[in-house]
């Protein structure tokens, strides 16, 4: 009775994203970037393949490195660890029981014992059971032991952000909680080329890092990614576009919104925007941002996370002190609202390009 | 002395013990890790058979029993050999000169209670609950209706009509058997693969579909992804995606129910994977130490997404944990709807009469993919799935049983199938046409009332929409201003 449909139920669904007619339209357009030539030959990779490639490089160059988490053995629910167990063996790439506090605590121990730990938390929304291990343990290991012990070789990777239909528990951007904790580095890439270099830096950095991966880009962002081993320094922002009138600051998925907004502002308002990707949320590159605002006199910071106590609040207050006399208008923040992440009403929650565009108009007309 | 004698609670109890049911119809193999009127005889009997000097053990147990309350030490009695027992707080042990490690491999697997075999034939007539025709038909129809609904909603996700779905294929028996064994008013905390409980209690197809579409008639107000149902009216606490979080909450509710003496129990469903979370430990331990009338119902379906149970735990399933927490525990064939019914009913009685938790481990198999985001052929064989679908399926098993009883036949099947499919399709099409909630509903229910900042943000949001109305899917949503606050 049920059998008839069994085969149709087992039809491969893997490469098919869970798109839906009413839910599919992304709120931005992804424009691929070109890698710096010095990084060498490239291959076409989307975001999850580039992250997979970074871990391949990390395991190939560091015999102590191990990868673990829920469902990573068969490749992970987002395919980021695919084929790595086949290549490096079951003792280096393995499933853990379903327990985030266990995953992070275990990773800390691996790092304390001198090996490199690359942990996956299946969704950023599920990182909270590990909050204690991250905030009270990983972040304070070096400090509390007088630098006798540290877990700097721990990196926690986790997918974050809106996807169009994820609702409360498959959409969150929890970076601010961790940026509020001294001792953790928080890093968020915007695309495949950058993700590989940043992830390799996190894995090799001497401090515990949380690497938030924009999951909406896993398949949709495709670039020519360098095949070799390269790192992009942590704690440094990148100026993606030079401009003179308004500085737009963001990270991760929101960068693609801001790049489109910069185009719209140029086209419709004749306003020239400088777009900065901070890349590392903590510790963030205040110097690059302040230099830019000193030049433009106007700042818009934008992220998907709720506005209150979001990381934009930190950037805004820092900049208003450092650049007070250069500011032509109050700093604008366009962020998620102070609500849980919605489901049916996601389009009304997002800090979309139109809200950013209106903020630029306010900045220019102040 | 045998190894068993220093590990009485587990295998010994479990092997020798049958509990006569209060009503006398069912005797299921629930075993009690802590001595009480039912279990002590079993332990003693077993000890007597395996151990020389069993009388001393027997006496010691009695003394330990009388001394456990408040961790009081056993009164010293130098003459009595058995009186020289460890006096560590809470101890129920005796001394041993044997350095025996408890090797988990030394114990046989906890048996699986079942009532009927795969052909729907009753193993032991005393275990047949002899449900009346109407009840059995309702059970069968709910199981199959759930199955049709799953097929249609799964396909509709494939066609992009809804964003996500999770099926219950293979677990219809665990769900409907347990739902029928409860009182409909018992509070259910679930994981996410338990829509059958709601369906049994009368959640309508329209209500299911409205939730999956997140439309304005969804009683959850379109706040959550599909399958995150909830109904206060039907005592079914709204699903939350983070795993195992419901478990300690369920224990708290059970504690409150006990104090309220309302005659209800709490049932808490969870998966074999979720059982690894820290919250699962907290829940089991709290329930035992605080004597809560709660049924922990583990759906052990073999997988947590791609992770097989062999990588989830190394003990004997979830059931082996029960005695460690001091919780009466039973393992049951989840594809035997009648066995599930029996154990749930017996567990409920036990909870209520003794104010203590019970752990049920239902052994079953997840026939469908984990969800519409998963392709299980990447980690398990089609043959494995086929076996459970064709050879050991809860729906076909109960149907065979009902056919033997003369309660069901091919003609009824055809009629019912047509009717059920039609009902599902009608509800589905209705839900698809409905509007989604009004935009301003985004801010409702964050708090009981909107604080100033949310009122301000609501205005900012509506202004943003007004400034670029063409950029928002306003046609799919109820009119701005129509949300009830
Ligand atoms: C805290 C948390 N971690 C991870 C997940 C992602 N996740 C959703 S379902 C699931 C597997 C659960 O398996 P199990 O408990 O066996 O239930 P089943 O799906 O088999 O019914 C995982 C890992 C989650 N929802 N919550
Ligand atoms: Mg499972």
TrEMBL record, chain A:
Annotated GO biological process: branched-chain amino acid catabolic process; response to nutrient
GO cellular component, one term: mitochondrial matrix
Presence of the UniProt keyword Secreted in the record: no
UniProt subcellular location: Mitochondrion matrix
Key words of the record: Mitochondrion, Oxidoreductase, Transit peptide
Signal peptide start-end: none
Cofactor(s) in the UniProt record: thiamine diphosphate
EC number assigned by the record: 1.2.4.4
Enzyme class: oxidoreductase
Function: Together with BCKDHA forms the heterotetrameric E1 subunit of the mitochondrial branched-chain alpha-ketoacid dehydrogenase (BCKD) complex. The BCKD complex catalyzes the multi-step oxidative decarboxylation of alpha-ketoacids derived from the branched-chain amino-acids valine, leucine and isoleucine producing CO2 and acyl-CoA which is subsequently utilized to produce energy. The E1 subunit catalyzes the first step with the decarboxylation of the alpha-ketoacid forming an enzyme-product intermediate.
PANTHER family with a match to the protein in the record: 2-OXOISOVALERATE DEHYDROGENASE SUBUNIT BETA, MITOCHONDRIAL (PTHR42980:SF1), 2-OXOISOVALERATE DEHYDROGENASE SUBUNIT BETA-RELATED (PTHR42980)
Subunit structure as annotated in this protein's UniProt entry: Heterotetramer of 2 alpha/BCKDHA and 2 beta chains/BCKDHB that forms the branched-chain alpha-keto acid decarboxylase (E1) component of the BCKD complex. The branched-chain alpha-ketoacid dehydrogenase is a large complex composed of three major building blocks E1, E2 and E3. It is organized around E2, a 24-meric cubic core composed of DBT, to which are associated 6 to 12 copies of E1, and approximately 6 copies of the dehydrogenase E3, a DLD dimer.
Listed name of the protein: 2-oxoisovalerate dehydrogenase subunit beta, mitochondrial
Organism, scientific name: Hypsibius exemplaris
UniProtKB/TrEMBL annotation, chain B:
Regions of compositional bias (Basic and acidic residues) in chain numbering: 466-479
Cofactor or coenzyme needed: thiamine diphosphate
GO CC terms in record: mitochondrial matrix
UniProt keywords, alphabetically: Metal-binding, Mitochondrion, Oxidoreductase, Potassium, Thiamine pyrophosphate, Transit peptide
Record InterPro entries: Alpha-ketoacid_DH_E1_comp, DH_E1, THDP-binding
Summary of the function given for this chain in its UniProt record: The branched-chain alpha-keto dehydrogenase complex catalyzes the overall conversion of alpha-keto acids to acyl-CoA and CO(2). It contains multiple copies of three enzymatic components: branched-chain alpha-keto acid decarboxylase (E1), lipoamide acyltransferase (E2) and lipoamide dehydrogenase (E3).
Identification of the protein by name: 2-oxoisovalerate dehydrogenase subunit alpha
Organism: Hypsibius exemplaris (Freshwater tardigrade)
